[in-house]
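Feature request, filed as a ticket because there's no other form

It would be nice if the structure record came with a short human-readable summary line next to the tokens. Right now we just get the raw output. Example of a typical job, pasted below so the devs can see what we mean:
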Amino acid sequence: MTNSFYQKLLIFHYIFPQSWHKIQQILIQIGDFDELLNYSNETVAKSLNINIEKATLIKTHYKQMRHTSMESYYRQYCIKAIPYGSEMYPSALMTLYDPPAVLYVKGDSSLLMANNKMAVIGSRAATVYSEQVLKFLLPPLINEQFVIVSGLAKGADRIAHESTIQLGGKTIGVLGHGFFHIYPKENEVLAKKMAQDHLLLTEYPPYVGIQKWHFPARNRIISGLSQGLLVTEAALKSGTLITTELALEQGKDVFVVPGNIFSKQSFGTNKLIKEGAILVWNGHQILEEMQMFSSFR
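Raw output as currently delivered:
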């Protein structure tokens, strides 16, 4: 893919953010992004599966922006845009069923190329148990240069990022919205710290706000980036279990911490262990399990 194609992709994605597979389907219909301007509003609406009003706006905005340097625009906000297929785009995400068309990052983008990454997830209503567990399990992983990936949400995600930073490790936060928004607000200081010394990542252009359905979608990136998934606490019905299912579908190792049988936040994790997830009780064991499984791949 050429730099010219990437530039057009960044403009189009800014106007009409879609996953890579959706972008491919659109290109099959129209041939090239610039061809949008040669089609009628009705044809564009049909090709993009949207109404005529939205198609008209997309054509208008694309025409206005077609000579804009998106790289320069993002640079003023300390954002780097990484299109699908570019050399900085992680190969692990290319294997996803529905990979992001563009990754927007803030911070140390070299962390994307780290060989070892471990996703850490758990309940947004995580108890002190999650904090104790992570401070015990993470040091061996961090000593082996594992980058810890999580979603910068309340509870277990926040604990995972903060514990990693306190232990001298590196961490990646995957957001479900654009960089002009921070959610939850209570993680604003943590997000600023990570944008400077670690990495924040999203598949959404900066202006895109917070939508409930974005968060399940971003979970495929959390598990997709990582070699394995560590689950601390989870209720029986939770987004954590959805992420676990995604990781299993992607062929990732899923490590689960056993919990108090009387705690609702451990009902989901204990069920995962019963169903065959790898029960773990120390960080060295995680490393040993990963080394053992890697020999079969």
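Something like this underneath would help us a lot:
The chain has two domains: 3-102, 107-294.
The longest helix spans residues 128-143.
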